[in-house]
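We store sequence with structure; for instance:
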Amino acid sequence: MDLVHTLTLGDVLREHARSRPAQLGAIDGDTRLDYQAVDRRVNRLAHALDRDGVGPGDRVVWMGQNSFRVVELLLAAAKLGACCCPVNWRQSPEELAFVVDDLRPRVVVWQHEEIGAATAAARERVNGPTRWIAHDDDGTDGYEAWLAGGADADLERPVDPASPVLIVYTAAFGGRPNGAMLSHMACIDQGLVYGHFTGTTDHDVYLNSGPLFHLGTLMHTLATFVAGGTNVFVRRVDAELL
């Protein structure tokens, strides 16, 4: 088997942190993270998820607008052999609750500002135990405090490159959407092919202004990440800001 098909998304991040540690990997407002810093944060997040019982095949959910933390959560799940699903935050509380019940995630990372009311209403409809963590809560129960409790060291768990790592909900079949499960190999190969046709390299900067719950945006996000370029995140489309 060739080298590409033995890699996981976690392996790609490890190599970026080793070979281009000072290259900016993520920009989000005042946040500037080089690949070494991204890797450290992802390791801390992986430890935090591990403490909450997230392991191979388990699901974690992002229920919020664009943020560098979406990719951070995806990569931490990747290092554990788990799956990450960025949910369409524009959905109704009933639709959001359906997705959470369908996935049965161990952890939901959610956003209070702008979509907190819909998220809270969805949470009331959800069955089963799930830990909910607000990524925009600066307090002791928020995302940064949760992540800070983790270690910088890589867990180095064995992960099958053919295992699913990204879940994107698609059009309805029988009245309800279904989650399409994409493997590490699929995400990396797609990034390489898409990057080849778009000429994406480690010198490129991609503006993530489209929604990250949509594969159309994620395609270029992953291509930029695989190439070792810089992803810039804006919370949502705002013509004046752009």
